[in-house]
Design brief:
It is a single chain. The chain has two domains: 1-47, no CATH class; 51-118. It is built from four helices and no strands. It has helices at residues 2-22, 33-45, 52-84, 102-117. Helix 2 (33-45) packs antiparallel against helix 3 (52-84). The longest helix is centred in the middle third of the chain and has 33 residues, at 52-84. The two termini are 25 Å apart. GO terms for molecular function: transmembrane transporter activity. It is found in: Cell membrane. It comes from Escherichia coli. This is Glutamate/gamma-aminobutyrate antiporter (Extreme acid sensitivity protein).
Length: 125
Amino acid sequence: MLLLMVAAICLSSVGGLSIAMVIPGNEINLSAGVMQTFTVLMSHVAPEIEWTVRVISALLLLGVLAEIASWIVGPSRGMYVTAQKNLLPAAFAKMNKNGVPVTLVISQAGDYVYRVDHPHQYRWR
């Protein structure tokens, strides 16, 4: 586990440093730094295939959407297993025809909305 943590930190650092080496600090856009880096690199290395930046951005978008989907369904699956072991009410152990524990997903959404509306109650210090 420690090795995985070290590897994750190193890989994340390499990604951040590669962006910092390509884009000057006063010009970097924090919300689009990765795409800005690809644009600069492609225009410098191979201007004739600069269109690949759009392909890369579309693939990154698909990856982000897939990751968000796993973040939404992942905790619900864990809670579903808990509900199957009768540690949660039986209503939480039901799935729809597509295999999604809808009750749990909706309760997660409600919990999130409640926490957003009452942020002063959840200070993590």
